[in-house]
Specification:
alpha+beta, Nucleoside Triphosphate Pyrophosphohydrolase, 3 domains, six-stranded mixed beta sheet, 4 helices, 15 strands, about 35% strand, NUDIX_hydrolase_dom
Length: about 260
Amino acid sequence: MSLQQESRSYWLLVQGSNIVWQAGLPFGIAAELGVQACQKMRVGTWHGAPLWLAVGAESEREFVSLRSLLPLNDEDYYALTRGVEIHHFLQTHRFCGKCGGASRLVEDELAVQCSACGYRAYPVICPSIIVAVRRDGEILLANHRRHYNPNGGGMYTTLAGFVEVGETFEQAVAREVFEETGIRVKNLQYFGSQPWPFPNSQMVGFLAEYDSGEIHLQESEIADARWFALDAPLPELPPTGTIALELIKATIELYAKEKEKQCQN
């Protein structure tokens, strides 16, 4: 869709997984915001006005992490997610992966096409699983190396990992949990999904029950993993807006319902 140079719109200016945000997205015409020379693409609507992605905004601008905006409502956050992931695609597909020729954005679909051989490339989405494992009145939570605090504490969260080629989501859940903790799971239940633009994942969430095994850490990735009682205070958890926190909340609710049912019997 073409841009009217004088139309007032919202603008998404991106660097990596960071965006320009000052109590909201920049609003105005391209010239006012200094993005008239950038490659532009409409990526949706923001609060009733067009939302445009400007590729190649100057590094001198002040950017904030998209993670800090997780508390936004889903509609707004996923609009930002879409723009950030498209920006990543355009920045990493400027040249053809088949022949090395220069690529250009096409108008009939979301893709880039090689100006030399005509090969088209489409946005890459990396499927990942994330799972909350429960055992009686406990939940399995891990302190990943990236969250490790040598002074104690640190965030504990659910287990996650990328889906491998030729693997189902369910197989990925079983493999990742076993690789990272030595635990085997059963009775998998699909929970939901979440785009995760760091840089281009799609998180597919599951609930699962403990089957067998004792905790043996994959120490290259996991600093600690434990069973935490669901009726006791939990450690520091993932932030609001993450599917990880929603999985933990769902597990707590399941336990509460099971406990209530037992009391009734």
